[in-house]
Amino acid sequence: MSNARRQNYISVHGIKVYGVEVDHQTRCKHYHSNVDIIAIRFPCCDAYHPCYECHKEVADHPVARWSKDQTDEKAILCGACGHQLTIHEYLTHKSACSACNANFNAGCRAHYHLYFDL
């Protein structure tokens, strides 16, 4: 990531989240409902972004997806409590944080193919 683009972040529970108009719970310009409170760590840059659109706007490289053998990686940040979920936890906890039970956007399932090679 270039220096200019790296500066486009906010600290959420002490973790840098890169994106566009990101708030203190990881909502962004593209997804900002009450339940849009996760950020995803992308394997291509090892950086959290609220969504693939934010990655596209602030990163200087194409998106890479998590592979099937990486489901034990902590790659999901709960914007409500700061817990980092493994991919497996995120995919199996029915759209809620496994630590604080905050609800996540169930509609994100429609975008799993953009983040995970399932």
TrEMBL record:
Name of a matching Pfam family: zf-CHY
Domain CHY-type: 21-102
GO terms for MF: zinc ion binding
InterPro entries the record matches: Mito_Tim_assembly_helper (IPR052604), UCP017292 (IPR016694), Znf_CHY (IPR008913), Znf_CHY_sf (IPR037274)
This protein's UniProt keywords: Metal-binding, Zinc, Zinc-finger
Keyword Zinc set for record: yes
Highest taxon above the source species: Bacteria
Any one GO BP annotation for this protein: protein import into mitochondrial intermembrane space
SUPFAM superfamilies hit by this protein: CHY zinc finger-like (SSF161219)
PANTHER family the record matches: HELPER OF TIM PROTEIN 13 (PTHR28082:SF1), ZINC FINGER PROTEIN (PTHR28082)
Name of the molecule in the record: CHY-type domain-containing protein
